[in-house]
Design a protein that fits this description.
This protein is α/β, with parallel strands linked by helices. It is built from 6 helices and 15 strands. Helix 4 packs across helix 5. The relative contact order is 0.13.
């Protein structure tokens, strides 16, 4: 059996030559929707590389502005999350799959629809895909996720999703949500971390479970190459320690989406330091929130922000630069 010390070397590259990972490009700035909502599409599309696309839902559609991920293997393609709004996503995904097929001169792959977790802003368009031929929709529920990806024992086990010459490892990550999972793409070295860690407010519903999940993710990252951590939201400003208020549809000068292994380690160290005591802590690029968006404080901020920004979303105010 490979010793842990030897296996840990797999998380390091001997030469700065790309480490065999498939490269891609992330933008320095994402469109958020607004302030000119008459000009905004429902989704902004970014091509990371020829086999991986990132979609961001416009804030004009829903203030959550979630990111969705479309990951192609040779035989199957994964759509990770279906977003927050109700506009047509299925037609867009059909078009992207057709274009990928034409580009690579391959048959259209079977579509797998899965989720980072069960909250409504990540599965609102599931019905657009359910019941269609050559599409498998995996419900965002603990039992369904365990079965589909083979996460045993749960949540400590590591499951897999095979897309055809592309393997994604799947880790159970309860804490923000009981059905939360994290995907690791071996081809690019990207962790898809959902709402477990991203540049914004990390709402923790089960503190003990979240602490254990974060430690497991750190342990997994120690033995795997990590290029980026990609979560599902940006709520943090480009200014350190400054977040946008909940409900913001327009976020000029926001933080980049990608985080690093260092952010994960920093989060884990802070949780260890808190010794099991739920505490709100603002770190440079994210905030630990032992609460939910449904608290009176958050509801009040949400309503005030939405009232202010929705009142001007079509009036095209000047863009601050």
């Amino acid at each position: 059996m490979m010793t842990f010390a030897l296996f840990a070397l797999l998380a390091q590259a001997p030469q700065p030559d790309g480490a065999g990972l498939e490269p891609g490009r992330l933008p320095r700035e994402w469109s958020t929707g607004g302030p000119r909502c008459m000009e905004s599409p429902d989704f902004f599309i970014h091509e990371y590389n020829a086999n991986f696309f990132i979609l961001r839902e416009s804030g004009c559609s829903d203030y959550e502005k979630p990111f969705l991920f479309l990951i192609f293997g040779q035989d199957r393609v994964l759509l990770l999350d279906t977003g927050a709004g109700k506009s047509d996503l299925a037609t867009l995904i059909d078009r992207l799959i057709t274009q990928w097929s034409d580009r690579h001169q391959r048959p259209k792959p079977k579509l797998i629809v899965a989720h980072t977790h069960s909250h409504g802003d990540h599965k609102s368009r599931d019905k657009q895909f359910e019941g269609r031929p050559d599409i498998e929709v995996i419900p965002a529920a603990v039992a369904a996720v365990q079965k589909a990806f083979g996460i045993t024992p749960s949540p400590a086990g590591v499951g897999q999703l095979e897309l055809g010459s592309r393997t994604l490892d799947v880790l159970g990550m309860p804490g923000h949500d009981a059905a939360a999972i994290v995907f690791y793409d071996r081809r690019t070295g990207i962790f898809f971390t959902g709402d477990n860690i991203y540049p914004g407010r990390l709402y923790i519903r089960d503190w003990a479970a979240y602490t254990q999940s974060t430690q497991r993710l750190v342990d997994f990252a120690e033995t795997h190459l990590v290029s980026h951590l990609l979560g599902n939201h940006i709520e943090q400003s480009a200014t350190p320690f400054l977040e946008f208020p909940i409900g913001s549809i327009y976020q000029p000068h926001e933080h980049v989406l990608e985080l690093t292994r260092a952010h994960l380690i920093e989060l884990n160290q802070e949780l260890i330091k808190l010794k099991g005591k739920p505490t709100r802590v603002a770190l440079r690029d994210l905030t630990i929130y032992p609460s939910t968006p449904g608290t009176p404080e958050m509801r009040r901020t949400l309503m005030e922000t939405q009232k202010r920004q929705r009142a001007t979303q079509y009036s095209q105010p000047a863009v601050e630069r």
